[in-house]
Amino acid sequence: MLAKRSLLSAGSRSSAVALPPRVPAGRGRLEVVCASNAKFFVGGNWKCNGSVASVRTLVDELNSGVLNSGVEAVCAPPFIYIDYVMQHLDSKKFALAAQNCWIGGNGAFTGEISAEQLIDFGVPWVLAGHSERRALNGESNEFVAKKAAHAVSSGMSVIACIGETLDQRNSGSVFKVLDAQMQALVDEITDWSKVVIAYEPVWAIGTGVVASPAQAQEVHAYLRKFCQAKLGLSVADTLRIIYGGSVNDANCKELAHMEDIDGFLVGGASLKGCSFVTICNAGGSKAK
Ligand SMILES: O=C(CO)COP(=O)(O)O
Asked: Does the keyword Calcium apply (predicted)?
């Protein structure tokens, strides 16, 4: 586990952070704030990238990297490469995730893979609700929440992804959007010890436009307050809230310094072994 960070009052936390532009005021309606108390978590989402040859190279690069002992690192290859990665990636350093699973159990669902099958195959983690699936596959908040809850109840750990679009940010509805995404998860998931929340603003994904540390911290602190109000202090305190969107080896350290950023979900930079290892190690002193 990470060394426990001190609990701060809402005032002392927010005064340390310069508010970013275009974020609406008046969201601080949840009063009590707590800090995270969990191991730094970094996921690599390989998305629909790679070939037999490039996956082999990436696995070799990852295996030769040296990770901080305190980091929990997870790689999410495309389904078709999971078997190879499972056989060859150093499981003492990296766990495996699937990028998606079906909303329920086995059955007549052509093209789907169930959480039960992933567990059967030895894959402990799964992503749910990545913005690309929300946008391209029409996955609603409720669908994502039901899928995440089913995966958790099947024994999987879930990286549940949320985040606003640029239009939503510009129109001042960031927290309304996040409230709806989070509330759907709160309504369905009963065991939060198996959940990591990935805040991935859509405008930062694959654009090279990373959220500023202050922007990300503001949202993460808000999400933690939301969880405290809905799920209680102990869940909020231990829940990992990780940031995703144009994280790379140059910007990860500054982001990792922020109090409520408990790790990263990495796309493009996770395809380069040395960059991903650098990002995994960005938690530095956050790890025991
Ligand atoms: O979508 C992401 C991770 O799930 C982030 O992607 P990039 O790191 O390429 O912006």
From this structure: no
Asked whether 279 lines ligand 1 (CB < 6 A), one says: no
Contact, 163 vs 199, CB < 8 A?
yes
Beta partners for 163?
A: none
200 is catalytic: yes
- For the question of residue 130 being annotated catalytic, the response is yes
Cα(149)–Cα(104) distance, rounded to whole angstroms? 9
Domain locations in the chain as residue ranges:
44-286
244 lines ligand 1 (CB under 6 A): yes
- ∠ CA 246-74-99, nearest 5°, is 75
Residue 82 in contact with ligand 1 by CB distance below 6 A: no
Q: What are the tens digits of pLDDT across the range 32-58?
A: 333 444 689 999 999 999 999 999 999
Please tell me the distance from the alpha carbon of residue 168 to that of residue 165, in angstroms, as a whole number: 5
Contact 197, 157 (CB under 8 A): no
Catalytic residue of the set 130, 139, 164, 218: 130
> pTM for this one?
0.89
Could you report the per-residue pLDDT of 137-148, keeping only the tens digit for each?
999 999 999 999
Q: How far apart are CA 198 and CA 157, in angstroms?
A: 13
Helices vs strands, H then E, count in the chain: 12, 8
Cα-trace Rg, the chain = 18
Q: How far apart, in whole angstroms, are the C-alpha atoms of residue 223 and residue 218?
A: 9
Report which ligand 1 atom has the smallest distance to the Cα of 269.
8
- Pick the atom of ligand 1 nearest to 210's CA: 10
- Evaluate: CB of 265 within 6 angstroms of ligand 1: yes
Give the fold, CATH level 3, of 44-286.
TIM Barrel (3.20.20)
**Residue 246 CA to ligand 1 centre (angstroms):** 6
